[in-house]
Each structure stands twice: as structure tokens, then as C-alpha cells.
Design a protein that fits this description.
This protein has 224 residues and is an alpha/beta fold. The protein is built from seven helices and six strands. The chain has a single domain, classed as Rossmann fold, CATH 3.40.50.
Amino acid sequence: MSDATPNTNRFAQFKLVLLGESAVGKSSIVHRFVKNTFDDMRESTIGAAFLTQSINLPESNTTIKFEIWDTAGQERYKSLAPMYYRNANAALCVYDITSRSSFNKAQEWIKELKRQATEGIVIALVGNKLDLEENREVDQQEVEEYIVQQSAEDDGNQIITSECSAKNGDGVLDIFNSIGRALPVDEVINAAANRGRPAGSRQQGGIDLARARRQQAAAANSCC
């Protein structure tokens, strides 16, 4: 009989939020990641949608569960966003590689996250619709220069950059794996062990769902 003790799989849970302009494909990225499906006719998200999915990082023998909040991109819902990125451990700021304005909007979200989100939040700047390369308006070199500029600010926020196609699935899983590797897994697991309960990211001051629903309804009924 072997004296070797089998490795115990570790578990950690983190809150992740998606931000970006309407129609950049935030919901499509999430559904490709969670359900491995794509719908060309997907309707715009109203307020926010909640999904969960887990990834395995074999190099650290860790399972990471993401609590994913997919927010609406329409301007009238912008005031709701702070409720969803509050206490988030990671954020996907999504733009459409065929839309320069959406890239500018993603930069605005990053600026807001740096100013108001949880300190040390992992930010991923994600260019979607890689399958429409022939219509590209945002060059990768421009994105890299932006990341270098942000890194020079040395504000403690890590920014991951990537491109993907929610339509064919290219690069989607890689984004979430990269985020998982950047998250403070050991810190969360050790803190949970000291408290004597399972590792998770829930913190005080989370989302008031009743209030969120009321504000969503008000935003949906407001004038565009």
C-alpha cells in the first residue's frame, strides 16, 4: 500500500462582473463560458443577469467558482453598475474590436473601477468579435500601449488583456483561466481556514436585490 496522501482539491469562490457598452457581446461571452452556446438573436440584458460557473486550475489543484454578474450596457442602466461591481474580485471590461467607441467606453469603465471598486480588483480588458477581424477598428498595438500606460500608474490594479470570439468560442475559456490565476486564491483559502468555514468571496455590503429590481424597473420605464 502506498504511503502517499492524495492531494486535496482546494476551492475558492469569487465575484466577477461584466461591464461595457451595449451590443459588445458581454452576455454572449458569459453564455459561451457557462453553457457553451451562442445566440445571434440574443436580446439586450435588462439591469443585470446572474450566472455561476467553475474552472479547474490543475497546476494549483484548485477549483474556482465564479459568481458572475452580467450588467446591461444601455446608458439608462449605468447608475445601477456600482451595485454590481461593489465587492467584486474581478471585472471584464468588454469592447467590440470593430467599434472604436466601445473601446473608449471600456477605458471609462476601467477608470471608474480604479476609482471606486474594491482595492486590488483584477481587471480584464477583453476585445470581443474576433471572428470579424476584417472589420477591426481597434488595433492590438493600441491596446498594448494603453495597458503599458495603465501599468505605469502603479496603482495596484492588475489589468489582463485578451481577445475572443463569443460566436465561435475562441479565447473565451482562456480569459477566465487567466483571471483565475491572477486572483488571490491562497489568501482567500487561508483566510477561510482561519475562520473555520469554506472559502468564498462574500463580503459585507453586497447587492440589495429588492432595491436592484426596483431601480431596474424604474430605469426600464424611463425615457431613453
